[in-house]
Amino acid sequence: METGINRRPLNEVIADALIVPAPEKEPPQLGVAADEAVKELYDSGEFTGEKLSFALLRAPAGLKARRLVLAGCGKREEFDAALLRRVAGAAVRRHRSRAVKRMALYLAEGMQTAATVGAAIEGALLGDYDPDRYKTDEKKNDKRLEAFSIAAPGGAAELDQAHERGRTLAEAQNFARDLAYEPGNVLTPGELARRAEKLAQEEGLECDVLDRERMQQLGMGALLGVAQGSAEPPALIVIHYRPQGSADSDVHLALVGKGVTFDTGGISIKPSQNMEEMKYDMSGGAAALGAMRAVARLKPPLPVTALVPAVENMPGPKAQRPGDIVKTLSGKTVEVLNTDAEGRLILCDALTYAQRLGCTHLIDAATLTGAIVVALGHVNTGVFTNDEGLQARVLAAAKAEGEKMWPMPLDEEYKDELKSPFADLPNIGSRWGGAVTAAYFLKEFADPKPWVHLDIAGTAWLDKDKPEMAKGPTGVAVRTLARVALDWRKQ
Ligand code: BES
Ligand code: ZN
Ligand code: ZN
C-alpha cells in the first residue's frame, strides 16, 4: 500500500473515501458545503460520534473526495493517538472495497502531531492486513487498499518523519504477524532461522544461527531437552544491530523471544481441542525479529541483539520425560516435571547466552502461560520484572504505542513454589499463580541483570475479528520493543 501525507487544501484531496474523525456532540467543520449534511446527521441522531461508529456520505458537496466517512471518536477529552490508531484501522477494514481503494484521513490543524500521524498510518496498515496467504481465491485482494494518506492541509515538515516511523513500525508488526500465522508444517525451527537470516541480510544486520552441535558444546541442556522429541532440529537465532560508534556503549539491549514453532506439550501432551493454535507459540520470537526490522531502519543509538531459541515441542521417541533432569547453560539443574512448560526451558538458556554476549539489559516476550490468559484475558500483556527502572521504560513505550500492558507481582514468596527435591529447580510450581511462577523461573536466570518479561499468551492471537484488526496473529509487542530501544536516551 502506498502511504503519504497530503498537504493540499482539504477540498482538493482526491480519494475514494475521506475519513473524518468525529467526536461526540461536535459535528466536524470542514469549511465546505457538506458541513450542512454532516450537521444534519448529528441533529437527526443518525450519527452520534460514538467510538468506532461510522456514517457515510456519498458525493459530499464541495469536496473532490467521492465519499466522506464520519469516524466516531467518542468524547473529545478521551481522544488520544491510541484511539486514532484504532479508528483508522476500523475505518479501513469497514470501508475498503472494490470501489474504495484510495483513502485519506483528515487531521485538522490542531491535531497534526507526530503521535497522531504515526498512529493513523499504523492503524491503516495494521487494519489492511489479512492472514489469507493460503487462500487461493483470487478475489481476496479485491478489498485491499491501494493508497492511504493523511490529509494534513499545510502540515509541518516534521510530519514526514512521523509518517515514515509509523510506517516502519506497522510493517515490522505485520512482518511478525506473517511469521506467527504460518502453520507448524511450514514454519519449522529451521525455516524460522532461514527467514531470520534473510531479514538480517536485507536489513544489513549480523546474524548467527547456532545449530544443535554448537548448543551441545556450549551446554544448553534445557533448550536441547525440549528439542529432542522432534525430528526438526533446533536453532538459536541471534541477530545483532550495532550502530556506529557504539562499541563501548554501557548499554546493550537483548530482545529474547520464545520460538516454539509448535507446542504439542510433548509427553505431557495437550488436549486436542484448540491445539492447532499452538502454532503461534513462536509469537514472542516473531516479535523480537519484527522489532529488529524496525530497529535496523530507525537506528536507535544503542546496540540491540535479538535471541530467538527455536524448537518444536513434540512427543517423539527421543522426547524428554517428566522427571528428567537437565543441566542449563548457567550450570543450574532443572527437574522437568511437565514437558508442556517448555517455554521457560528454552528461554533460560537464551537469557544466559544473552549475558555471555555482553547484553546488559534483557527483555523477553513469550506466549508463556495459559495462566496469564486466566488473569488478564485477551486485553493486557502481563509484565514481570526484577528492575523497576527497566519496567518503567517498557510501560512508557507500551503506552506511547497503544499496546496495553499490566505490571504483575514477583515477590520472593513465590520462590517457595520452585523447590525440587532432586535438582536446583523444578520447571513448574503448584497449580496457583502459574504465570508468576513461570516468570520467577526466568528471573532465576536473568538475575542480576535488569530484566522484563512480557507474557503475551493472551494478546498474541485474536480469536475473532476486532473492528480494527483481523482475527489471528496480532504482532503484539513489536512496537513496544522497538520503541524501548528508540527512546532509550530520552529518559
Ligand atoms: N504455550 C503454552 C502457553 C499458552 C497457553 C500459550 C495458551 C497460549 C495460549 C505453554 O508452553 C504451556 O503449555 N504452558 C503450560 C504450563 C503448565 C504446564 C505449568 C500452561 O500454561 O498450561
Ligand atoms: Zn507448553
Ligand atoms: Zn509453549
Q: Explain this structure to me?
A:
The protein has 491 residues and is α/β, with parallel strands linked by helices. It contains 13 helices and 20 strands. The protein has helices spanning 35-43, 81-95, 114-127, 159-180, 189-203, 212-218, 221-227, 283-298, 343-356, 370-376, 388-401, 434-446, 478-486, and strands at 2-6, 17-22, 54-58, 67-72, 102-106, 147-151, 206-210, 235-241, 253-257, 259-263, 304-313, 325-327, 333-335, 361-366, 381-385, 405-407, 425-426, 451-455, 461-462, 472-473. Strands 7, 8, 9, 10, 11, 14, 15, 16 and 18 form a 9-stranded mixed beta sheet that branches. A 6-stranded mixed beta sheet has the order 1-6-5-2-4-3, with helices on both faces. Helix 8 (283-298) links the parallel strand 10 and strand 11 (304-313). Helix 11 crosses helix 13. The mean pLDDT is 97.
Annotate the secondary structure layout:
Layout: E1 2-6, E2 17-22, H1 35-43, E3 54-58, E4 67-72, H2 81-95, E5 102-106, H3 114-127, E6 147-151, H4 159-180, H5 189-203, E7 206-210, H6 212-218, H7 221-227, E8 235-241, E9 253-257, E10 259-263, H8 283-298, E11 304-313, E12 325-327, E13 333-335, H9 343-356, E14 361-366, H10 370-376, E15 381-385, H11 388-401, E16 405-407, E17 425-426, H12 434-446, E18 451-455, E19 461-462, E20 472-473, H13 478-486
Parallel strand pairs: 1-6, 2-4, 2-5, 5-6, 9-11, 9-14, 10-11, 13-17, 14-18, 15-16
Antiparallel strand pairs: 3-4, 7-8, 8-11, 12-13, 15-18, 19-20
Helix pairs in contact: 2-3, 3-4, 4-8, 5-8, 7-9, 8-13, 9-12, 11-13
Bound molecules: ligand BES and zinc ion (2 copies).
Residues 260, 263, 281, 342-343 line the site of one zinc ion.
